[in-house]
Here is the input.
Amino acid sequence: MTLLIDNIGELVTNVVGAGDGGPLGIRRDAALLIEEGRVAWVGAAADAPAADRRIDARGAAALPGFVDSHAHLVFAGDRAAEFVARMAGQPYTGGGIRTTVAATRAATDGQLRRTVGRLRAEALRQGTTTIEIKSGYGLNVAEEARALRIAREFTDETTFLGAHVVPVEYTDRPDDYVGLICGPMLAAARPHARWIDVFCERGAFDVDHARAILACGQAAGLGVRVHANQLGPGPGVQLGVELGAASVDHCTHLSDADVDALADAPTVATLLPGAEFSTRSPYPEARRLLDAGVTVALATDCNPGSSYTSSMSFCIALAVREMGMTPAEAVWAATAGGARALRRDDIGVLRPGARADLILLDAPSHLHLAYRPGVPLVTHVLHNGVPQCQ
Ligand code: NIG
Ligand code: FE
Here is the structure.
């Protein structure tokens, strides 16, 4: 079975050197052939091969599906009241994480599975074809393993975040909690996780604890990611670079040394503007990172506390309006950038051999994702070459 997407007015390939020569590798009046879940051919619509089925894009824009490389979907309850208080001037401290931990521990497997499934479906409808899902609201051996087991039902990109905060029962013994994470919790999480993450921040884990936790995860074969420099300046970004992290996430408060370290490293800076929006915080300085040559990704950080959005389009609009990114840079960061942050070369790009994860917009250009904020422009989502119900 082959499927041809024909009459694409603007095709964003993210293939350097293709099309217009820009970073998005834009081809105009293009077509794309899919076979067995992969892109089989990309070229001019005039040269399109015959196929078993055909979708007429009618001049619309097509681009790789969004890669949301940072989300916390395994939770119960919500914290709408906390959001309302913040909008009235209360600061975000991360203290509400413990509220969600209590609600999550009290939930059944079925309740958690329904929440993850609802949010995964919500994201997919909006064009997110790959999503990373973290644990981090269980914070004991059984609960972290349960969260990852459920997350694994929805994605291959699962992240063990037992080091989200120190749970109340270990408040006076953080060293013991770090021992628990590196011992039985890691052993229980490992079969269900690809990555390990630590919230390295004042009030969460200090740099020594964070290094110890990430090192034992790495020794067990997990890739490293870090929640770093979200609420204030700190050592998280440089720790991530030191350990060869795939990504350091948030990057809201960066020193020149942090930016220099990232510029010289393969580590991606993943920016999460939904969190700044929902916590009324200053946005990360994307322009400064890009001008220094740092690879930037955009992700939602979808969680019930700091950023309850699953919309990558919204993050693109914020990045353009508030963070000095061009629409092209923001779209690249939300697709190819996310793929880099997950160390994947089969997604975030549309070239022969890549996974056929792509979206069509009710718009002639990717520019409209930022230009028309809040508008549901995604009309078609193809995941592994299969059209999803819209
Ligand atoms: O990435 N910063 C730490 N963790 C989440 C927030 C989690 C929460 O508030 O529930 C974040 O913003
Ligand atoms: Fe997060």
Summary: The pocket of N-(iminomethyl)-L-glutamic acid (ligand 1) is lined by residues 72, 94, 96-97, 100, 199, 227, 230, 275, 301, 303-307 (CB under 6 Å). The first strand starts at residue 2 and ends at 11. The first helix runs from residue 80 to 87. The chain has two domains: 2-65+349-387, 66-341.
